[in-house]
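**User:**
Make up any protein.

**Assistant:**
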Amino acid sequence: MTSLVNNNLVTLAADEAFADTRRAYQKQLNVSRARSIEETLSLAGACVARGVQSGANGIWEQPAMYASRHGTFGLVKGFSKAVVGAVVKPIVGIGDAAVVVLNHVSDATCENAPVVKTNKRMRRALPQSSAPFGNRVNLIPYDTNSAIA
């Protein structure tokens, strides 16, 4: 439930770069969940530090980025996003730390081996063209008439 609340708070922060880096970090944490308590607490502290650092960096980066793109209106928009991010991002970091610690407690008290989450859908490869072009991929533009047929 904590991770669900954190995902909604990340959406509230409205910072795509923060959401992408957080998603990548969460995938990295879920690869191997069997750790000692010291490693778990270290990772929890790192989650809190990442949230605080991102919130503090956003105070300077967001207004400058939006002001350069949209002028005065962008400065106001960037400042408001920075203030919201400065409050929300450390809270997300604390929530991520709680998830890491609770996962460790769950793994330590459960008799079964921890289940590592993997993607159910396998990656798909684009079809490769034949001999004249070697290993190049032949992409064809979308045609409505062909799609209807």
Remarks:
- The chain has one domain: 2-114.
- Residues 2-114 form one domain.
- The chain is about 70% helix and 0% strand.
- The chain has a mean pLDDT of 77.
